[in-house]
Amino acid sequence: MSRRKTAKKRFISPDPIYNSTLVTMLANRILLQGKKTVAQRILYQAMKNLEDSTQQDSLEVLRQAILNVTPLVEVKARRVGGSTYQVPLEVNSDRGTSLALRWLIKSARSRSGRTMVSKLSNEILDAYNNTGAAVRKKEETHKMAEANKAFAQFRF
After folding, report:
1. pLDDT tens per residue, range 82-94
2. What is the pLDDT of residues 42-65, one digit of tens each?
3. 14 in a domain, yes or no?
4. Which of 38, 95, 45, 49 is nearest to 72 (CA)?
5. Which secondary structure element, helix H or strand E, spans residue 78, and what is its range?
6. The whole model's pTM is what?
7. Is residue 133 part of a domain?
């Protein structure tokens, strides 16, 4: 990790259809090989599928799904006196959102299915209903932090 000053936070412009920075962040995580229009098309079709299946506003469904996946605590390795401890730390809100988006996309990609649109919409729907691989990943992270609560005094 760099010991220089921390990088400035970049401004994320909202997407043209939903006018949401969250949708832009998700499209940027889907992005492969710089093909942003392909990523946006996948995301917008998945959002349309969500709206058709839930009869609710797809942006609200997405927000709730990301809230359900966002972790509150995580563990970081800390080296103290020759041994490494997994120290539980509270997660910053920006980092929590970033982790949630990353886990959502990763679990959508690893799902079985034919198209990325269907895999993504199903994963968002599962996260909205508090099931699925991304929510399981959050619960694993929380369990790991709970198990290593004894090392909380090594917090930095």
Report:
1. 999 999 999 999 9
2. 999 999 999 999 999 999 999 999
3. no
4. 95
5. strand 73-80
6. 0.91
7. yes
